[in-house]
Design goal:
This protein is of the alpha/beta class. The chain is built from 21 helices and 13 strands. The chain has a 6-stranded mixed beta sheet, sandwiched between helices. Helix 14 crosses helix 19 and helix 15 packs parallel to helix 19. The longest helix is centred in the last third of the chain and has 22 residues. The structure holds 6-O-phosphono-beta-D-fructofuranose.
């Protein structure tokens, strides 16, 4: 029980002791430079400035004590050892093996996993080279120009985000499309933009049973058949990524065209596996290998760096501080990079599906808040939408600013403006603006002064990378994966299952049958009314 740990109590008391302290006073002190030196870290090509947080050296020391008391070192070692840390599903969580070198010793159930990983990597390389090189063609012998990834959640968000982030790389040769929603609009609009003779579909699903993906795969299949591709030629247009060979076969995809992964890879941690096939097709295998190398560099840092100098641990524990001791219920991710615009959506699944839990490993309730609401979008757009609330709203929202120091695509003057705004937001949040400063700025209208005051003392991290490269992106993703894991350890929850997605799926099945005309079943009055309205509109009443 995390709340029973000594450090938990100590942190509560410590919070009472420092809650009125102002970050701007710390920065105005003569030794402020020391604060930055003390509260910054470099790892795997990333620089983290966490000086603008409401923490003192003692806060950090207590947070590290909490991590230690929660058994972080042991739990981290268990994860790297391939133990079944996903206890409810009796599985390891060994995504680090997917980005490891072939000679690494990762094992699951006593068996080495690297040979199988390496074999799939080779197949991904070979297949992608044939598609990109034009040797793998559609049924009519035409070159593949468009690839559609059909998948949802972890089978969509990761590869979609990576392909977006690295779209500036020169190796981009194919047009990638991602379709996730069961709303037919998404697939129909995508199909209207591509030519079946030139299109390859990846059906990407760990289970190969997911409603959305299977519905989209079925409709894509019909589209090919309706557009002149013969049934026995479909194999030129469909490949599968899955752990479920039987379901792949049953759908009609030859297992020879299936890229395998394993049940010890959680969906939201799977972009490093064959789920990354779309990335390899888009960017080429070498870029994917660099992505893996970046993730691997962060794994090595996370595995070996002492807790206080460990970037995922420090970021995780700052999150714990705000969530559990300062009462902050949301956290914002603001990448100042259009390339990274999909990172917040990826992180929502990573954090909220992993740590949005209320019971501990042993099934007892967690008597502490777990995952905050994670949200955000690319800067500077957010500044003109919701940053008002972050600066002056009644809730305090910790922000992670992420920025590449050099632009993926340069236009004169733009990047300095972008970075200036990023740094200015963090400075404004920390420093705020007093009534005296407003007046000194020459405000004409005295009645407005209080509206122009910023309380400040609002926390943020700033995470910098030199460029958005496959390597830095890999490190960034792995950083947040491990940060998520560490928080799960503190809350003593299983970060690798997702039972909370099941009930809605279960209830949707009979409702779908009712919408399609089956006899209505008893529901609550509200749901009954909604179903009746839909049946009337669909003509199934
Ligand atoms: O419903 C949630 C979920 O199971 C996610 O955890 C997963 O990433 C997503 O659905 C897709 O699952 P699959 O890859 O099996 O289609």
């Amino acid at each position: 029980m995390p709340t029973n740990l000594h450090a938990w109590d100590a942190l509560q008391q410590h919070h009472e002791a420092i809650r009125e302290q102002q970050m701007r006073d710390w920065f105005d002190a003569p030794d402020a430079g020391q604060r930055v030196a003390q509260f910054s870290l470099e790892a795997a090509g990333l620089y983290l400035d966490y000086a603008k947080n409401r923490v003192t050296p003692q806060t950090l020391a207590l947070l590290m004590q909490l991590a230690d008391e929660a058994g972080l070192n042991e739990r981290r070692d268990a994860m790297f050892a391939g133990d079944q840390i996903n206890a409810t599903e009796h599985r390891a969580a060994l995504h680090m093996a997917l980005r490891a070198l072939p000679e690494a010793g990762y094992q699951v159930d006593g068996a080495p996993v690297m040979p199988a990983i390496q074999a799939v990597r080779e197949r991904m390389r070979d297949f992608s080279e044939r598609v990109r090189g034009g040797q793998w063609t559609g049924a009519s012998g035409k070159r593949i120009t468009d690839v559609i990834n059909l998948g949802i959640g972890g089978s969509d968000l990761g590869p979609r985000m990576v392909c977006r982030a690295l779209a500036h790389l020169p190796g981009n040769r194919l047009r990638l499309h991602f379709v996730s929603n069961v709303d037919g609009t998404e697939l129909a609009e995508t199909l209207s933009r591509v030519d079946p003779e030139h299109t390859l579909v990846i059906v990407c699903s760990k289970t190969f049973t997911t409603l959305e993906t299977m519905a989209n795969a079925g409709s894509a299949r019909r589209w090919f058949l309706d557009n002149g591709v013969a049934e026995n030629q479909l194999s030129r247009h469909f490949v599968a990524v899955s752990t479920n060979v039987e379901a792949v076969r049953a759908f009609g995809i030859d297992p020879a065209n299936m890229f395998e992964f394993w049940d010890w890879v959680g969906g939201r941690f799977s972009l490093w596996s064959s789920v990354g096939l779309s990335i390899v097709l888009a960017l080429g295998y070498d870029a994917f290998a660099e992505l893996l190398a970046g993730g691997r560099a962060m794994d090595e840092h996370f595995r070996t760096a002492p807790l206080p100098a460990n970037m995922p641990v420090v970021m995780a524990m700052l999150g714990i501080w705000y969530r559990n001791f300062c009462g902050m219920s949301t956290s914002c991710l603001a990448p100042y990079s259009t390339s990274l615009e999909l990172f917040p959506a990826f992180l929502q699944q990573l954090e909220m599906e992993s740590n949005g839990k209320s019971v501990q490993l042993d099934g007892r309730r967690v008597h502490a808040h777990t995952s905050p609401v994670v949200w955000g979008s690319a800067g500077t757009n957010g500044q003109h939408a919701y940053f008002q609330m972050i600066h002056q709203g009644s809730q305090i929202v910790p922000v992670d600013f992420i920025a590449p120091l050099r632009p993926p695509r340069a236009l004169p003057g733009h990047h300095a403006k972008l970075l200036a705004n990023c740094f200015a937001q963090a400075e404004a949040l920390m420093r705020g603006r007093t009534a005296e400063e407003v007046r000194a700025g020459g405000t004409a209208d005295d009645a407005c002064v209080s509206h122009m005051v910023f309380d400040g003392n609002r926390p943020s991290n700033t995470l910098l990378m030199q460029d958005v490269t496959p390597h830095t992106l890999g490190a960034l993703i792995a950083l947040y994966e491990h940060r998520t894991f560490v928080q799960g350890v503190i809350w003593n929850i299983n970060s690798f299952d997702q039972w909370g997605v099941e009930l809605g799926k279960l209830l949707a099945r009979p409702i779908e049958a009712e919408l399609n005309g089956a006899a209505t079943a008893p529901h609550d009055a509200s749901t009954t009314t909604l179903i009746a309205r839909a049946r009337a509109a669909l003509g199934s009443a």
